[in-house]
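Notebook, student rotation project (T.W.).
Task set for the rotation: take a protein with a known small-molecule partner, predict the structure of the complex, and write up what can be learned from the model alone. Partner molecule chosen: S-adenosylmethionine. Sequence and SMILES entered below by T.W., checked by me.
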Amino acid sequence: MSRERPRVVPVEKGDQATVDVHALGDGPDGLAKIDDYVVFVPGVLPGERAIVDITSATRKFGRGELRHLEQASPDRVEPRCAHFLQCGGCHRQHQNYRAQLLSKQQRIQKTVDFALGADTVAVQPTVAAASPYGERHKVAVQLLPDARGSLTAGFHRARSPDLVAIDDCPASDPLAWDLVQRTIELLRELPHRAWDPWFAPKELLRSVLVRTTTTGSAHVVVVATEPRIAGIERIVDRLLRDGASSLSVNHNDGDPARLLGPHTELVAGRPFVHEEVGGVTFRLSPTVFFQTSPRMAGHLVQHVLDWLRPTAADDVADLYCGVGLLTLPLARRARSAFGIELHGGAVDDARASARDNGIANATFRCGQVAGWLRECGRELPRPRLVALDPPRTGLTPDVVEALRSLAPDRLAYVSCEPQALQRDLPLLQAAGFRTVSVVPFDMFPQTAHVESLACLERAT
Ligand SMILES: C[S@@+](CC[C@H](N)C(=O)[O-])C[C@H]1O[C@@H](n2cnc3c(N)ncnc32)[C@H](O)[C@@H]1O
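Predicted structure of the complex:
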């Protein structure tokens, strides 16, 4: 009887070791090896040889921190942000932008190959961000005490609930970042402190969320553990003068992992901002989902329209429609478009935008996608074309089942999570759809995140 020999772990915590980097992981780390032992190291690139400080070493894998590069990749560039690798955000800044796009295409290719096996398709080149920095129009920072006990901005460290203080964020739209800073500067004048679930659970101020639009408006939301912030009216005029078009307070006294609570109250300014994408103006309430880069949203909309190609004879459905980003442009070309969405505020915005843009053939319902799909073809028209953009968890089995019975001619599946895409493509294939093409989109440059559009048709 052969007994498995215990695996030799070639290093231990505290060692310095030379590693060869083979690939990038799906998160902040590069995958390096010492012989066949894997060590995860942030801030390295494939093809590099590095000396690392080993920070942990288990039988399965180790972790290390870069000390010195013995051989650098030709794709290496200087990170633009001073908080690179301390902040858990933009961990691909050391890779040139062309290589970032290529590595995202390769990642989605692997996903699609795994999902479809012999039926795989060639993934198209990644659609590049309008600009590799300064494109995030929604910025949310946590508030934490600075060295003098006053307020400062923080982001989470990678794989950690700990916060790191941040004084600049080149990934953010410059107006959004200026407003984050200005809001914090003004909040420091009030007698309130930063909340912390463990060390300061009674304090008031949790986070600042800013959404800017390409048309120049900006909604600032201060998240607090109470519904009101005493004295906030003292800062309103200066915040509005310095670029905010609205200021709201969101009340969140719950889960530390959730940015927003259920109630938001306008303190000053207009209750909504408006964003324009593809010739449609969208009304946005402060807490609804909207793509972080409006210019990339425009590319996404165009690709969905190009694949679905609605005509004046078509009824179209947009599942998980948010504020109608896809529904309204589709409605402009179709006989009718129907959007279904769980968030009541997003549905109100979608209906208001339909009215404001004179789009009379778009209807929206607030509810669960699965329930609505079951009614299609009975009380509701059967859509020949379907767009779907689920949350990170992807599709539920009842949605896939309902799509099988509905059997639309074409599907445009927008995915923000490759693992969900990998699981859902074979399910959709088994439900009678064939994947024709897949296009990745770089919605979050300088990070490992990648979105994609899978174009499917009903198999004959
Ligand atoms: C990734 S967003 C897409 C929104 C929109 N397509 C866009 O690009 O702006 C997903 C949306 O699905 C909604 N949602 C999540 N689960 C849902 C469900 N079971 N039924 C309906 N909507 C849902 C969320 O509220 C969110 O607005």
